[in-house]
Amino acid sequence: MDYPVFAVTVDLVVLTVRDGGLHVLLVRRGLEPHLDRWALPGGFVHADEELAAAARRELAEETGLAEPGGHLEQLASYGAPDRDPRGRVVTIAYLALVPDLPIPTAGTDAAEAEWRPVGALGLAFDHDRILADGVERARSKLEYTPLAAAFCPPEFTIAALRQVYEAVWGESLDPRNFHRKATTTPGFVSPTGGTTEGEPGRPAQLFRRGDATLLNPPILRRAHGA
Amino acid sequence: MDYPVFAVTVDLVVLTVRDGGLHVLLVRRGLEPHLDRWALPGGFVHADEELAAAARRELAEETGLAEPGGHLEQLASYGAPDRDPRGRVVTIAYLALVPDLPIPTAGTDAAEAEWRPVGALGLAFDHDRILADGVERARSKLEYTPLAAAFCPPEFTIAALRQVYEAVWGESLDPRNFHRKATTTPGFVSPTGGTTEGEPGRPAQLFRRGDATLLNPPILRRAHGA
DNA sequence: AGCGGTTATCGTCAGTATGACGTGAAATGG
DNA sequence: CCATTTCACGTCATACTGACGATAACCGCT
């Protein structure tokens, strides 16, 4: 039996929350095809490498960080026959949610790297579609899982957590109701005992991630049709 | 630049509901490796073929049906370096939810095909893991989407729909509360006007799928830890 | 026809979750 | 010291859910 040969890449949708908005990590391509265009970070999977390991490796190479308390999961695979002019390339996209990082350092095959607000960006390949899928995945995961905390540093306030929801969903939430929901949902967050200092207003309690993997009951956004 | 070469396959987790239980379509392998062992149906992606098209083709080949009103979606990709002794093979798994079909016909490279209750089956390759992921995906999709109807014929009763939930979740639901929920959730089901005939008990109204793609509010199962 | 069994459908009611919003607490910066 | 800011907690009406009673409309049997 014989069969067609493929190249396999991983691409990363790395999301973070900066100044109240959802941002994605992009790199400017330093190689053909799509030279100089913006794209998601990614690269070829090595000959004897796990897919998830390849994703972690690319993440570390592009950001200079080895998983800073964030979250990494497989998103989906894309393999349209004409998606890459070099030949038949299937890419496994991964979704990473990370705290706001100092600034990404340019990697090996990327001339530059930077955070860009998500939206209609004209990215290389089919990366606009992959990004849209990643954003939608993040939006719905916030409803049913405690993953919002992956966008926060190890210790955070309820207000910071709420701002994550507001940035990712693009809607504002009532601070008092959100506080009640976050603190009473079992396993979502647990208090560290510390408080903020030096901020304007009353000091806020600090929390860390709880041990739940699923929020029950979930935190539902308003009807988001289709 | 050079890069490693891969083979790419699609594997299918085809689920249906039969006599009150969730069943998966398995084939007995007619080729090495894992000759004669049970496995998920699947095969190599052709040189110029979309991934989803390959999944549909394999589904048609294995079951003799071209999407009988069911549902097909990408599940996840699996690419451990040693998952296939023939070499580096990445598989894109697809999840199909279909109505109870007469009986699958054996395909080209499968000696036999049959429905088996899901559970701890000792499948070839990493197919136990893929199956488990598919079942979990189906369980959670029933909560937030109207996909339960994909397991039913075009017209069905509320009781049939409830039995889908009971089979997939493995728990029993109150018929009266489920009836209220299914009929009042906007876009879930719409009445055809017809009723069942010849069945024991009071005749039931017939429904077809509504036009919603998301259930709001969702139908949540009881706390399913982890 | 009449009757018991079966299933569908509708209704009630208490407990819980949610959204809207009022109010005091505890800090900061003039 | 006072105005401002943000946190934290409380109240209340409404909606949703789960438990379960009651009735409707068919079956098969005698």
Distance between the termini of chain A: 44 Å
Biggest sheet descriptor of chain A: 7 strands, mixed
| Structural Rg of chain A | 19 Å
Order of helices and strands of chain A, N to C? EEEEHEEEHHHEE
Q: Using the alpha-carbon principal axes, give the shape of chain A.
A: elongated
- The CATH architecture category of the largest domain in chain A equals Alpha-Beta Complex
Uncertain residue segments of chain A = none
Helices of chain A, by number, come to 4
Highest CATH level, the class of the largest domain in chain A: Alpha Beta
Number of domains in the coordinates of chain A? Answer: 2
Mean pLDDT of chain A: 92
Structure described in brief:
Chain A has 226 residues and is an alpha+beta fold.
Care to describe what's here?
Two copies of one chain form a homodimer. The first copy, chain A, folds into two domains: 7-142, Nucleoside Triphosphate Pyrophosphohydrolase, CATH 3.90.79.10; 153-224, Arc Repressor Mutant, subunit A (Orthogonal Bundle). Chain A starts with 6 loop residues before the first strand and ends in a 17-residue tail after the last strand. In chain A, the strands form two sheets. In chain A, strands 1, 2, 3, 4, 5, 6 and 7 form a seven-stranded mixed beta sheet that branches. In chain A, strands 8-9 form a two-stranded antiparallel ribbon. The first copy, chain A, contains four helices and nine strands. Chain A has helices spanning 51-63, 127-144, 158-169, 175-184; strands spanning 7-18, 21-29, 38-39, 42-44, 71-78, 89-97, 110-117, 189-195, 205-209. At the A-B interface, strand 5 of A face strand 5 of B. The structure holds a DNA duplex (30 and 30 nucleotides).
